[in-house]
């Protein structure tokens, strides 16, 4: 049966949550019905090794509003979201976790902020969290660093409860562990109207968390990677060339100083050390070589993207017929 366009799509990544799925489905269905929202629920089973897929399959048979996608192994939350985004047909797309810690009662408010208030993206803020202390402190540090680097004034980048205009999720690529930085990806894709909504955070009812503290280490690495790729993907010479100039100029200045210092001492009959006996000489040599290598790296990167057909792909927000202009 073909699927038709909806007002809202609920995208729910699932990994070993067989106990919570039926309760989450009933809760979402109740909220959609109470608010007269025409919606669909897309469950993405991210390679669960429990009975999650059978539960999802049963819901799909029972309710045509439910769609289920089963990945052949555990690819991670980012991959699950990406697949869900590609299949979503709603004008507004809302994501939430399957562990019942995200409250479906927030759906109408998030939908209104996108559909009526005109936000491109709205991120939930779990102002009062029901997580252990050892998770809250690293999370605050993580969010602080991300705010500083990205310039986006959000309190909780990693909240699973978010809402988007459909065009936003269709024009960004989420992979690796980069679901934490969707607001950053959206901003650099041209969707800068980003809002925040305080949402209720609930204690986990079933099972245990699937994430450890190592996610913060990988998260900081992903932040550096995304910052570099997004800012310099089109113009890598701006990055490598700038560093190359700084390194080369530093090496050149040190070289002039070393040579000038030797000539000055020789002219004034002062004790003179051989140039190769001075550590500054080797520092200057390294700086010059590194500067040249950075320049070459920038040139090679420019040549590579020159042959990339997506180099000049731009997202068109709107257009009109100009044939008669």
Structure description:
The protein has 325 residues and is an alpha/beta fold. The protein has 2 domains: 6-232, Spore Coat Polysaccharide Biosynthesis Protein SpsA, Chain A; 236-306. The chain has 10 helices and 7 strands. The chain has helices spanning 21-34, 52-62, 77-87, 107-115, 133-150, 166-170, 182-188, 214-232, 236-267, 279-306; strands spanning 6-14, 39-45, 66-70, 90-95, 121-125, 162-165, 194-198. The protein has a 7-stranded mixed β-sheet with strand order 3-2-1-4-6-5-7, sandwiched between helices. Helix 9 packs antiparallel against helix 10. It is elongated. The model is unreliable at 319-325 (pLDDT under 50).
């Amino acid at each position: 049966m073909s699927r038709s366009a909806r007002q809202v799509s609920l995208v729910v990544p699932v990994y070993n949550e067989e106990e919570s799925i039926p309760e989450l489905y009933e809760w979402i269905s109740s909220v959609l019905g109470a608010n007269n929202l025409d919606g669909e629920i897309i469950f993405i089973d991210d390679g669960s090794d429990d009975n999650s897929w059978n539960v999802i399959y049963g819901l799909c048979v029972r309710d045509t509003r439910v769609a289920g996608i089963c990945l052949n192994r555990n690819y991670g939350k980012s991959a699950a979201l990406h697949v869900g985004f590609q299949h979503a047909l709603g004008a507004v797309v809302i994501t939430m976790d399957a562990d019942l810690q995200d409250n479906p009662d927030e759906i109408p408010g998030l939908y209104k902020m996108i559909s009526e208030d005109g936000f491109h993206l709205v991120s939930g803020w779990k102002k009062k969290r029901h997580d252990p202390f050892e998770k809250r402190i690293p999370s605050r540090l993580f969010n602080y660093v991300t705010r500083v680097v990205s310039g986006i004034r959000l309190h909780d980048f990693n909240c699973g409860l978010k809402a988007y205009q459909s065009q936003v999720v269709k024009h960004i690529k989420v992979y690796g562990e980069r679901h934490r930085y969707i607001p950053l990806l959206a901003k650099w894709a041209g969707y800068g109207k980003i809002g925040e909504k305080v949402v209720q955070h609930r204690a986990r009812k079933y099972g245990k968390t699937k994430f450890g503290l190592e996610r913060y280490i990988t998260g900081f690495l992903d932040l550096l990677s995304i910052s570099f790729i997004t800012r310099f993907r089109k113009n890598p010479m701006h990055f490598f060339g700038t560093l190359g100039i700084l390194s080369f100029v530093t090496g050149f200045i040190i070289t002039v100083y070393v040579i000038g210092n030797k000539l000055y001492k020789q002219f004034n009959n002062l004790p003179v050390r051989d140039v190769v006996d001075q550590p500054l000489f080797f520092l200057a040599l390294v700086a010059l070589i590194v500067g040249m290598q950075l320049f070459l790296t920038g040139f090679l990167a420019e040549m590579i993207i020159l042959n990339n057909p997506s180099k000049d792909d731009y997202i068109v927000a709107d257009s009109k017929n100009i044939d008669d202009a």
